[in-house]
Amino acid sequence: MVARRGFHTTRPRMSSPYHYPEGPYSNLPFNPRSKYFGAGYWTFMTVGFFAPFGIAVYQTYKTQ
Fold it and tell me: DSSP secondary structure string, 10-22?
């Protein structure tokens, strides 16, 4: 005999839509609403994207 299992989920609590009493963005270690956030963000992304290519070029041209 196989017992049927009833699937159910816990009802979500809707007391805070952001899950933090301080509000949104309070759990981030940086301030995305600051004046220089965009420049810092794109600098970080650009360096992170081009670093492997720069390292590959360096490894190709260095003397052994």
Answer: PPPP-S-TTSSTT
